[in-house]
C-alpha cells in the first residue's frame, strides 16, 4: 500500500514538471492597419515597409484590412479591428470626410490612431505620417527651371481629382511664378493607375511644339508620357515623375534606363508609421506631425539608389530566411521537448504498472541515458540559436550602416541647397550695399552742385565756373546711370524686374526717343533719320523697360558713328503683323568677327576708340530687358561699313505682364523729379518754431540735411536709429527725416516703432534711401513713411516736402479739433490720432467727477510724461490739455442738462466743478448761454 502511494506521488510531481519548465510567452501587441486600397506598387511598398520594420519586433502582431476603395467597408473594418483588440490603429483613408465617425469611435475607446498619407476631418488623431505633396510639386518646378535654364514651355499631367493632385498642382504652379520665362502650355487630367495619355497629350504636344518638359504626378503616368513622346519622335522632351520606387517598371528603373529624366521620391511612409506606433506602445515621446521629405532622383544618383535598394532587398530576404530558420529550430525544440515529456510520462506509467524493482531500475537507467542524449541535442540547438542571434545582430548593424549612409547623402544634398541659398543672399546683399555706398556720396555731390547751378547765387557764377559745375553734374549723372544699370543687372539676375505693360503706339514712342538725340547728332554732324511705313503700330509695351533698351542702342550708334555718317531708325510690323520690329542702323566702324560672339556678355569690352570707352554693360542690359519683354535682340555688322541692331517685340503680352489699373508707387529722386500734390502753401503758424529731427548715420549727409533745414526750422540730429528713436520719444518733434539703412536699428524699424507708439504716431516721416526698387518702396510706405526720397535727392525738393507735410499736419489738426466739439462715435478702424483722442477722452470721463484731477495723473494713466502729453495734444489738436479736459466736461454737462432729473448744481458736481458759479461762467463762455437757459431752450425746442 505504501509503495502504491509513492508511485502516485511520483506521478503527480512528474506531471507538474512541464508546467514548471515552460517559459512565459513574451508580451504581444496588436497593431491594426486599415488601408483604402492595396493594389499598386506604391501601396505594396507601404505594406512592405511596415513588414520590414516589424521583422525586428516579433512581439508585434500586424492585423491588416483592405477596403478595396469602399469607404463604408473601411469604416466597418476599423470597427472590426477595434473589436479584435488592436491597441494602435494605422489608417490610410481614401476620403477625408468618410472615416471621421470611425476615428471618433477609436478616440472614445482610448485607441490611438495614426493617419498615413491622407488626413481626415476629425481632429482626434494621435499622429500623422505622410509626404509633402505641395513641396513635391514645388521641387518639380524648381528642377524643371534648372533643366530648362529658366526659359521654355512645360506641360503638367495631374492625377484624378483629389487632395493629393490639387496640392501637387498648387505647389508646382506657385513655384513656377518665381520663373516668369517658363510658361505652362497646358494641363491634362490623367489616371493614377493608367499610362493611357495618347489622345490628349498627343494633341497638346502638336499644338505646342515649343514644349521641352512634361511633369507627371506619378511615374506610371510618366511612362505614358514616354510612350507618346517616343511615337511622336520627340526624344528632346524632359520627363519628371513622382514616386521614385525601386523595382521593375518603377521610377528608379525608368530614370536609370533613360525613359524619364527624373523622379521625385515620395516615401510610402510604412516604416515611419510603424516606428511612431512602437513609440506610442512603449509610452515614448513622439512627433504628432511627421512630414516626410522629398528628394530628386536623376542620372546623378539613380544608380546609387538602385544599388542601395537592391542591397536592402537582399538583406531583408536574408533576415527573413534567418527568422524562418529560427522559427523552424524553435518548433523543433518545442517538439523534442514535448517528446521528452511524453517519454517521461510513459516511463513513469511503466514504473507504476511494473511489478518488479529490477525492471523499474532498468527503465530508469534507460530514461537517464535518453535524457542525457536529449540534453546534448538541446545544447546543440541552443548553440545554433546563439549563432543565429549573432548573425541577426550583424545584419542589423549592416542595415544601420546603410541607413547612416542614406542619411549622410540626404544631409549633403540639404547642405548644398543651403549653400546655394546663402550665395544668392550674399549676391543680393552685395548689390544693395554697393548701390547704397555709391548713392550716399552722390547725394553730397549732386545736392550742392544743383543748388549752386539753380539757387539764388547762380547768376554770380563765372562762365568757366558754370562750365565746370555742368561737367561735374553730367559726370555725376553718368555715374548714377552706371549704378542704375548695375541695379537693373541685379534685378534681372535674380528675377526681380517685372514688366508692367500698357497699350502704346510704338511709332510715337520711338519717335520721341529719336527726337531727344537729334541735338547731339547735329553737334557731331551725324544725319539722324526716322522711318515708319505705317503711321501707328499699337502694342503692349513697358515704356520704362524699352526706354533703357533704345537709349543704349542710340547712344552706341552715336558714339561709334563718325562725323558725316548716318544713323537710321526704322519701325515696321513683323511676323505677319503679330510683332513689331525696331532697327537701329549706323555707318560706323562695325564689329570685329572675334567680338561678335561676346557682344552681349556682361562687362565685355572689345576694341574701342580712346574716346568711346564704355562699361560693357549697355548691350548686355539691353538684351536682358528685351528678353524680359518676351522679345529678341539681334545684330548684323560688317567692319568698316556699320552695324544694324534689331529689336523684335510681340504686340500681345500675357495678362500677368500687363499693368493693373492701380497707379504704380513712385519715389522721388533727383534724376526723376516729381511734383508734390497741390496743397496749402502755408505751414504751421510759425515755421521757425517747428522742430525737425534728422536721423542719418552718415556724418556728411547728416550735416548737409541739417544745414539746409536750419534757416527755416529748429533742427535736432541723431547718428543712429536707437538714439533717434529715443530723441523722438523725448522731444516729440514736428517732423522726422530718417535714413533707411543704418547699423543696429534700421530706418524701417524706427518708423514702425514710431507708428506703434501713441506718443509719436502722429509725426510725419520722410525717408532717405539708396534703395529704389518698387518692392523696397512698398516696404517703406507699409512701415508708415509719408514721403520716400531716393538718393541723390534735390535739396530744394526736400525743403518743400517738409513744408508741405507740416501744412498737411496743420490741416489735419484743425479737422480733429472740429471733430472734438461733437465727440464722434468711435469707428471700427480709427486713425491713430483718433484712437489716441478716444483713449484720452475715455480716461477723462473715467475721472469726470474729480475736481482735483491733475495733468500728471492723466499722463501717468496713459503712459506719457507730462511734457510728452502736452506736446502730443498740442501737435494733434492745437490746444492745451486743460482746455481739452474742460471741453470734455462741458460736453458731458450738455448731455446731463437735457435730463430733468438733476439740478444745475448737481450737474456741475457730476462733471467735476466744485463751484456752481465757475461752472456757469465756463459754460456760458463756451456755448454763449447759461446752463439754466440752455435747459429751458432744450425743453421748449429752441436751438
Q: How would you concisely characterize the structure shown here?
A:
With 943 residues, this protein is an alpha/beta fold. The strands form 5 sheets. It has a 6-stranded parallel β-sheet with strand order 2-1-3-4-5-11, with helices on both faces. It is flat, with a radius of gyration of 43 Å.
The portion of residues assigned to helices is 40-55%
In the residues, how many domains can be counted?
A: 6
- How many distinct beta strands? 24
Number of helices: 28
Domain Response regulatory: 691-806
Protein name: histidine kinase
Organism: Hymenobacter rigui
InterPro entries: CheY-like_superfamily, HATPase_C_sf, HATPase_dom, His_kinase_dom, HisK_dim/P_dom, HisK_dim/P_sf, Homeodomain-like_sf, HTH_AraC
Amino acid at each position: 500500500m505504501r509503495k502504491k502511494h509513492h508511485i502516485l506521488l511520483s506521478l503527480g510531481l512528474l506531471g507538474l514538471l512541464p508546467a514548471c519548465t515552460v517559459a512565459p510567452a513574451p508580451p504581444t501587441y496588436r497593431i491594426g492597419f486599415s488601408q483604402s486600397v492595396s493594389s499598386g506598387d506604391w501601396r505594396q511598398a507601404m505594406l512592405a515597409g511596415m513588414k520590414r520594420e516589424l521583422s525586428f519586433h516579433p512581439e508585434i502582431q500586424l492585423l491588416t484590412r483592405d477596403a478595396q476603395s469602399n469607404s463604408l467597408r473601411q469604416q466597418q473594418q476599423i470597427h472590426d479591428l477595434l473589436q479584435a483588440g488592436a491597441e494602435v490603429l494605422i489608417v490610410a483613408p481614401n476620403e477625408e470626410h468618410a472615416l471621421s465617425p470611425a476615428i471618433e469611435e477609436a478616440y472614445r475607446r482610448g485607441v490611438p490612431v495614426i493617419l498615413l498619407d491622407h488626413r481626415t476631418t476629425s481632429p482626434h488623431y494621435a499622429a500623422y505620417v505622410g509626404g509633402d505633396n505641395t513641396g513635391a510639386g514645388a521641387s518639380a518646378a524648381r528642377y524643371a527651371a534648372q533643366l530648362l535654364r529658366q526659359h521654355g514651355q512645360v506641360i503638367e499631367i495631374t492625377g484624378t481629382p483629389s487632395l493629393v493632385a490639387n496640392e501637387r498642382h498648387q505647389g508646382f504652379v506657385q513655384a513656377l511664378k518665381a520663373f516668369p520665362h517658363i510658361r505652362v502650355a497646358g494641363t491634362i487630367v490623367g489616371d493614377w493607375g493608367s499610362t493611357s495619355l495618347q489622345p490628349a497629350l498627343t494633341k497638346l504636344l502638336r499644338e505646342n511644339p515649343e514644349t521641352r518638359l512634361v511633369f507627371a504626378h506619378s511615374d506610371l503616368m510618366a511612362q505614358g508620357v514616354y510612350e507618346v513622346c517616343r511615337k511622336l519622335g520627340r526624344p528632346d522632351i524632359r520627363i519628371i515623375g513622382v514616386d521614385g520606387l525601386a523595382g521593375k517598371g518603377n521610377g528608379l528603373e525608368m530614370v536609370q534606363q533613360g525613359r524619364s529624366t527624373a523622379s521625385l521620391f515620395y516615401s510610402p511612409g510604412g516604416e515611419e508609421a510603424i516606428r511612431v506606433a512602437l513609440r506610442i506602445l512603449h509610452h515614448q515621446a513622439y512627433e504628432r506631425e511627421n512630414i516626410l521629405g522629398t528628394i530628386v532622383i536623376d542620372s546623378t544618383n539613380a544608380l546609387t539608389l538602385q544599388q542601395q535598394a537592391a542591397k536592402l532587398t537582399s538583406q531583408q530576404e536574408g533576415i527573413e530566411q534567418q527568422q524562418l530558420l529560427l522559427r523552424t529550430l524553435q518548433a523543433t525544440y518545442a517538439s523534442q521537448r514535448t517528446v521528452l515529456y511524453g517519454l517521461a510520462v510513459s516511463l513513469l506509467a511503466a514504473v507504476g504498472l511494473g511489478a518488479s524493482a529490477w525492471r523499474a531500475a532498468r527503465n530508469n537507467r534507460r530514461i537517464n541515458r535518453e535524457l542525457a542524449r536529449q540534453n546534448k541535442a538541446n545544447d546543440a540547438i541552443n548553440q545554433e540559436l546563439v549563432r543565429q542571434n549573432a548573425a541577426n545582430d550583424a545584419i542589423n548593424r549592416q542595415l544601420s550602416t546603410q541607413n547612416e549612409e542614406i542619411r549622410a547623402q540626404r544631409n549633403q544634398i540639404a547642405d548644398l541647397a543651403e549653400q546655394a541659398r546663402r550665395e544668392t543672399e550674399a549676391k543680393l546683399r552685395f548689390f544693395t550695399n554697393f548701390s547704397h555706398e555709391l548713392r550716399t556720396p552722390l547725394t553730397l555731390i549732386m545736392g550742392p552742385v544743383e543748388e549752386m547751378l539753380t539757387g539764388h547765387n547762380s547768376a554770380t557764377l563765372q562762365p568757366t565756373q558754370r562750365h565746370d559745375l555742368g561737367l561735374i553734374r553730367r559726370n555725376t549723372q553718368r555715374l548714377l546711370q552706371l549704378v542704375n544699370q548695375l541695379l537693373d543687372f541685379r534685378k534681372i539676375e535674380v528675377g526681380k524686374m517685372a514688366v508692367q505693360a500698357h497699350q502704346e503706339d510704338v511709332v510715337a514712342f520711338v519717335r520721341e526717343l529719336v527726337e531727344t538725340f537729334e541735338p547731339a547728332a547735329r553737334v557731331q554732324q551725324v544725319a539722324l533719320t526716322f522711318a515708319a511705313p505705317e503711321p501707328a503700330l499699337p502694342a503692349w509695351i513697358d515704356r520704362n523697360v524699352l526706354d533703357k533698351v533704345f537709349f543704349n542702342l542710340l547712344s552706341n550708334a552715336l558714339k561709334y558713328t563718325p562725323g558725316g555718317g548716318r544713323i537710321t531708325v526704322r519701325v515696321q510690323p513683323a511676323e505677319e503683323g503679330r510683332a513689331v520690329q525696331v532697327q537701329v542702323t549706323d555707318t560706323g566702324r562695325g564689329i570685329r568677327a572675334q567680338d561678335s560672339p561676346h557682344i552681349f556678355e556682361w562687362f565685355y569690352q572689345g576694341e574701342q576708340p580712346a574716346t568711346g570707352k564704355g562699361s560693357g554693360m549697355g548691350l548686355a542690359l539691353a538684351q536682358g530687358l528685351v528678353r524680359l519683354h518676351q522679345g529678341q535682340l539681334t545684330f548684323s555688322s560688317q567692319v568698316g561699313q556699320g552695324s544694324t541692331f534689331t529689336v523684335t517685340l510681340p504686340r500681345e503680352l500675357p495678362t500677368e505682364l500687363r499693368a493693373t489699373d492701380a497707379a504704380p508707387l513712385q519715389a522721388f529722386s533727383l534724376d526723376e523729379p516729381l511734383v508734390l500734390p497741390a496743397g496749402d502753401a502755408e505751414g504751421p503758424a510759425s515755421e521757425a518754431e517747428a522742430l525737425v529731427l534728422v536721423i542719418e548715420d552718415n556724418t556728411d549727409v547728416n550735416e548737409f540735411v541739417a544745414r539746409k533745414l536750419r534757416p527755416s526750422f529748429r533742427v535736432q540730429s541723431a547718428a543712429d536709429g536707437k538714439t533717434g528713436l529715443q530723441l523722438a520719444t523725448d522731444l516729440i518733434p514736428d517732423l522726422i527725416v530718417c535714413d533707411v539703412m543704418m547699423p543696429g536699428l534700421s530706418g524701417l524699424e524706427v518708423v514702425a516703432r514710431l507708428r506703434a507708439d501713441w506718443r509719436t504716431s502722429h509725426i510725419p516721416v520722410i525717408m532717405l534711401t539708396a534703395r529704389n526698387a518698387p518692392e523696397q518702396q512698398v516696404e517703406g510706405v507699409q512701415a508708415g513713411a509719408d514721403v520716400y526720397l531716393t538718393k541723390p535727392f534735390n535739396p530744394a525738393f526736400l525743403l518743400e516736402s517738409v513744408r508741405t507735410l507740416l501744412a498737411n499736419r496743420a490741416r489735419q489738426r484743425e479737422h480733429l479739433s472740429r471733430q472734438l466739439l461733437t465727440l464722434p462715435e468711435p469707428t471700427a478702424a480709427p486713425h491713430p490720432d483718433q484712437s489716441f483722442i478716444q483713449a484720452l477722452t475715455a480716461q477723462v470721463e473715467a475721472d469726470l467727477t474729480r475736481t482735483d484731477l491733475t495733468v500728471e495723473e492723466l499722463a501717468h494713466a496713459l503712459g506719457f510724461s507730462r511734457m510728452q502729453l502736452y506736446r502730443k495734444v498740442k501737435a494733434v489738436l492745437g490746444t492745451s490739455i486743460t482746455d481739452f479736459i474742460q471741453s470734455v466736461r462741458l460736453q458731458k454737462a450738455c448731455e446731463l442738462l437735457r435730463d430733468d432729473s438733476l439740478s444745475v448744481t448737481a450737474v456741475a458736481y457730476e462733471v467735476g466743478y466744485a463751484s456752481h458759479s465757475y461752472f456757469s461762467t465756463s459754460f456760458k463762455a463756451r456755448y454763449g448761454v447759461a446752463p439754466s437757459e440752455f435747459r429751458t431752450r432744450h425743453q421748449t425746442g429752441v436751438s
